[in-house]
Design brief:
Shape: globular
Strand order of the largest sheet: 3-2-1-4-5-7-6
GO molecular function: methyltransferase activity
CATH architecture of the largest domain: 3-Layer(aba) Sandwich
Bound molecules: S-adenosylmethionine
CATH class of the largest domain: Alpha Beta
Number of strands: 7
Distance between the termini: 60 Å
Number of domains: 2
Keywords: Methyltransferase, Transferase
CATH superfamily of the largest domain: Vaccinia Virus protein VP39
Radius of gyration: 17 Å
GO biological process, one term: methylation
Order of helices and strands: HHHHEHEHEHEHEHEEH
Protein name: Methyltransferase
Number of helices: 10
């Protein structure tokens, strides 16, 4: 179908345009999984139930900079933008150029930018966008299949990039995350979401000041 016709259908919110739209993220995700299985780490995107549970503790009124690692086709990205303040920003960092291109083309929102890069460079990336610290950092990274040492480096860089009291939100299929998060964060809370393929662990890790405030 010609691009111009598809754009017209999209504008009119035509059922055909909606059907094509829902197929595109799935097929993009699957194609990238076939190309880079270890980097993608999962054959299908996260479920709406996992998205809801992972984001449940976020205080949206205080979030000015929200960072996302490994957005893929934007399963979390769109719900985050729905909740984010009008004057806040979402930076989504992915090592996969095709996902970054897809997200920047598909999401027209002045509060959003997909950045090609590694989560290990989070401090440099947020500085390049005019920020000194993030309120929340969300991770969809496949930590257990990352090269040796990279997970530990990303956890340390994340803690350094968060504001005092800020939180690192991680969903992960294995318990591997515990040994990476515990040395970096003073408080780590855990949850579990059955309604996902496969069922998934959730870790909410808080930077120091939250403890002092809560005490
Ligand atoms: C399992 S997918 C998550 C997709 C999506 N967030 C979801 O929940 O459906 C993992 C993503 O992490 C990205 N990734 C892997 N290593 C990365 C790194 N070091 N920095 C940033 N993104 C990375 C992959 O390219 C992929 O998009």
């Amino acid at each position: 179908m010609a691009t111009v016709e598809l754009k017209k259908l999209r504008k009119a919110n035509h059922p055909l345009a909606r059907a094509i739209r829902s197929l595109t993220p799935m097929s993009t995700f699957f194609r990238e999984f076939v190309k880079h299985p270890a980097m993608i780490g999962s054959v299908i995107p996260s479920s709406p139930a996992l998205v809801r549970a992972t984001l449940a503790p976020v205080d949206w009124s205080s979030a000015r900079l929200f960072v996302e690692y490994g957005p893929g086709v934007g399963t979390f990205t769109r719900p985050v933008l729905e909740m984010l303040r009008p004057d806040a920003m979402l930076l989504s960092i992915d090592t996969n150029r095709d996902f970054v291109r897809y997200l920047n083309a598909d999401i027209a929102d002045v509060r959003f930018r997909a950045v090609h890069g590694s989560a290990a460079d989070v401090r440099k990336i947020i500085a390049e966008h005019g920020f000194t610290e993030a309120d929340y950092i969300l991770s969809g990274l496949p930590f257990s299949t990352l090269p040796s040492g990279v997970g530990e480096l990303i956890a340390a860089e994340t803690e350094a990039a968060l504001r005092p009291g800020g939180a690192f939100l991680v969903y992960q299929y294995s318990n591997y995350m515990r040994k990476i998060l515990y040395p970096c964060f003073a408080r780590v809370e855990q949850g579990f979401e059955w309604l996902n393929i496969p069922p998934c662990r959730i870790f909410w890790s808080y930077k120091e000041e939250a403890l002092a405030k809560a005490a």
